[in-house]
Amino acid sequence: MASSSKTITVVSSDGDEFEMTMKAAEQSKLITHMLDEFGVSDKVPLYNVNSETMAKVMEYCKKHADHEAAKEEDGGAAIGAGGEEELKKWDDEFLKVENGLLFNIILAANYLEIKSLLDSSCQAVADMIKGKTPEQIREIFNIKNDFTPEEEAKLRSENEWAFQED
Amino acid sequence: MNRRVRRKVARKGKEKVVLPSYPEIRDEVSDSYPERLVDWRGLPDDTVIQLFSCLSYRDRASLSSTCRTWRLLASSPCLWTSLDLRSHRFDATMASSLSPRCVHLHKLRFRGAESADAIIHLQARNLREISGDYCRKITDATLAVIVARHELLESLQLGPDFCERISSDAIKAIAHCCPRLRKIRLSGIRDVSSDAINALAKHCPNLTDVGFIDCLKVDELALGNVLSVRFLSVAGTSSMNWGVVSHLWHKLPNLTGVDVSRTDIGPSTVSRLLSSQSLRVLCALNCPILEEDTSFSTNKYKNKLLIALFNDIFKGLASLFFDDTKNGKNVFLDWRSVKNNNKDLNEIMIWLEWILSHTLLRSAESSQQGLENFWVEQGGALLLSLMQSPQEDVQERAATGLATFVVIDDENASIDCGRAEAVMRDGGIRLLLGLAKSWREGLQSEAAKAIANLSVNANVAKAVAEEGGIDILAGLARSMNKLVAEEAAGGLWNLSVGEEHKGAIAAAGGIQALVDLIFKWSSSGDGVLERAAGALANLAADDKCSTEVALAGGVHALVMLARSCKFEGVQEQAARALANLAAHGDSNSNNAAVGQEAGALEALVQLTRSPHEGVRQEAAGALWNLSFDDRNREAIAAAGGVQALVALAQSCSNASPGLQERAAGALWGLSVSEANSIAIGREGGVAPLIALARSEAEDVHETAAGALWNLAFNPGNALRIVEEGGVSALVDLCSSSLSKMARFMAALALAYMFDGRMDEFALVGTSSEGISKSVSLDGARRMALKHIEAFILMFSDPQAFAAAATSSAPAALAQVSEGARIQEAGHLRCSGSEIGRFVAMLRNPSSILKACAAFALLQFTIPGGRHAMHHASLMQNACAARVLRGAAASATAPLEAKIFARIVLRNLEYHQTDLQTI
What we know:
The complex is a heterodimer of chains A (166) and B (918).
Chain A: E1 7-11, E2 17-21, H1 22-25, H2 29-38, E3 43-45, H3 51-73, H4 80-94, H5 99-112, H6 115-129, H7 134-141, H8 149-163
Parallel strand pairs in A: 1-3
Antiparallel strand pairs in A: 1-2
Chain B: H1 2-15, H2 23-31, H3 45-53, H4 57-64, H5 68-74, E1 82-84, H6 92-98, E2 107-111, H7 113-118, E3 129-133, H8 140-149, E4 155-158, H9 168-177, E5 183-187, E6 191-192, H10 194-203, E7 209-213, E8 217-218, H11 220-223, E9 231-233, H12 242-248, E10 257-259, H13 267-274, E11 281-283, H14 288-292, E12 305-307, H15 313-319, H16 331-337, H17 343-366, H18 372-386, H19 392-405, E13 407-409, E14 414-415, H20 417-425, H21 428-436, H22 441-454, H23 458-466, H24 469-477, H25 482-495, H26 502-507, H27 510-520, H28 526-540, H29 543-551, H30 554-564, H31 568-581, H32 590-596, H33 600-607, H34 613-626, H35 630-638, H36 641-651, H37 657-670, H38 674-682, H39 686-693, H40 698-712, H41 715-723, H42 726-736, H43 740-753, H44 757-765, H45 770-794, H46 798-806, H47 810-820, H48 832-841, H49 847-861, H50 868-877, H51 880-889, H52 895-917
Parallel strand pairs in B: 1-2, 2-3, 3-4, 4-5, 5-7, 6-8, 7-9, 9-10, 10-11, 11-12
Antiparallel strand pairs in B: 13-14
């Protein structure tokens, strides 16, 4: 118990310091690796992540670390499938954020190597895309259409198969 | 210019912002995104690729069409190592357009012979695995060309439908062309010859996995030569020579797993196979001859697993791990969660998952007797654990198996509740919903189908709703894939049967999705349209949902189906939906809206002539409901509804009570106007209605009595009813129907017929036969009056009457009124002339008719009745109070008439206050 409650400090790109438990830190492969290099007493610099995103990612790591701890404690018996389902719902709520923040969370999850967060945030973006036309997707992600008319014609024939129902 | 600025003033004015001097600039600022602008193209490439891999091919195509960066990433080789073409139309042109991206394609799934023909145009020379279904029409030539162009092929699977046109020649071609072949599984080949098998043995040294499944004949001798084989399945294959098998197969040096499920293998062959050195698993599920031998035991074979109906399969599987402690029902999960590097064991488990899913699905499809215990104790749980397999085709088959094994009777859509609830208890709903959320359309449709079938059980439906299934199904109903949308609509259909989930379906946007689905597939696919219309029909039965159906454009969609769809199942559900939409006359305007939809009434009239009984029934039901609206009623008549419905009534003497009820009901509805009544009589509607009045079913006599009552208002029709023998039918109804309403309306019909108007008509109409007619009329009249009297006496409790006669206290009258009340009669609505006729009847010389008229007026004015106010106001206009007071005070009138009249007067006083306030 003593070791899991030990905390470390990470520093965001804005220079803000965040404290997190070792357990929570283990959610991130990058931090785990860096701790091996820097040692636990040092502050871990994570200059690719800004403070707003870092706060959010901290929240995620804490929740998932707590969940794992609870699961270990009772051997997974009481938590069962219901507990996993609940965590899944929590994730869904957690990712209901404005597009810009979601984008930053994905970048952070990718950088910090938090696979479960990367998976669920990618899925959240995928859910936004489902069933949309290219024009609607451009609107959601604020993307400019940079195709020439010739390229567009080529695209159409390239993608036609996917739109043909059997 | 002016106009633009003014628009802005108006808008800013609301926000109380002073008009700035440069409105254009201000406008741009305020219109910009409230959130930070991020460039999503800045996502790391591998993240974008992961994003693509979460999407269906259609969504991938859309995403790749947004910008150059993502288009480039969309063609990354790692997104193109496997391709599932089953839900897409695939031909040579499509294949050519895909070809540049398929250089590194390893794995391909396709559906149908036409797609098979196009495969070579992909030019995917690196293809390792091909798997196809719906392969009945694939020929030797097609297959030979495919294998010739893909010499790196390691795995070929065609099935589970029978490959009827593939012969041993094609198998020889495979052997010659694909030296790297490791796995071949073919279903339904007529004759797998020794030549073919020997060619495989000779040219394919790596061949370890062979399946000749559901074949008619396989050369078992030659199979003994395939020394490389480790896994062999001949499940469902007939005319096996088990003697040869016993003699040869146990000598195969590498044989690890054998599947002989669904064959006529016997205990001696099983024993012989189990004595093989290398064999670990023998699967013999559903082998009747083996199962008959109760003395058979596998105890003496150490470290061999026999999977059979009489064994505990889960325990047996767990024993493969050399660990008997784990014997829960999740042995497949346990195996996967244990990080083990035992390659042999992994191969066995992967093979087992595949053959088990196959045999379970086949057994479920055959709905064979004698498997009840197996399904409840093991089969359902096995399917559930197979649904969690990492092999996508196993998952799919397990879901299809679940959808199939719960169904007992396809025709009546009845399911085995024990099985359904067992699936639910074992966590099956959550698993299925999980599969339904996958991007893979094959999984989506099979999971949705299973959820739909299971939801026939109300407890399961509740669980589906609680686990968020309604949102998921509503989402899938929006799918661009027809199969997915069809199964999802089927799920919503079954979930919308009860009252519990209708609101949730509406809240999940299900109604809009269902309506959109009709427009999307209006010209193709009876299955999807029938399910969507069926679901909308259920939903429309609910007041609030019916309003939403109309708001979503449902009226137009359903009328379109009723007008132009040629499939009877769709016509039936569309008509039922329109009937239900029109059933809420008091609370919304859907009834009128349906009638105003161009061609709606004509289409429904047309459908009453359908050869399909269900269609006729629902169309008649819709016309019945629609005829409650005055304008619709006349429009139906103008569209030929009278002739059509009379013809329907004439032809339905042997039809179901449901159809009979609605045919008579529609005529009842139409006959509310006297013009229609006359037309119905003229078209010959009287005789069939009399026949229906003699029906056994009380619902039918109710509507037939109602129609005859309305018709009898017209003296010409009244005479027809007498001539067609209707008096005895009505008398029977009046005295012995189980439905109070039918008795009541039969009595009123008889009262109309014999209150004198018909006699005048008969005298004027036919002079020559007048005398003989009047004789028989007298007899009929006496009989009618006698039964009317008996009917009314049934509602007259002598004690309560005595109390009411001597006392003027309101309580006494109230007691009589309560005793006489016919609850459903409160729904009847009479016109001014009908009320006028009953008021006039109060003065009829017959004391029975006096009492009957007072009784009728009592029913029509009881406070709380739907149209009581309307009737009260009509009576006020007819100056009825004076006549009623006369009847109440009359010395000659019977006691019942007097007391009923007093109650009516009291009812009128009650409504008086309400009428004045209006």
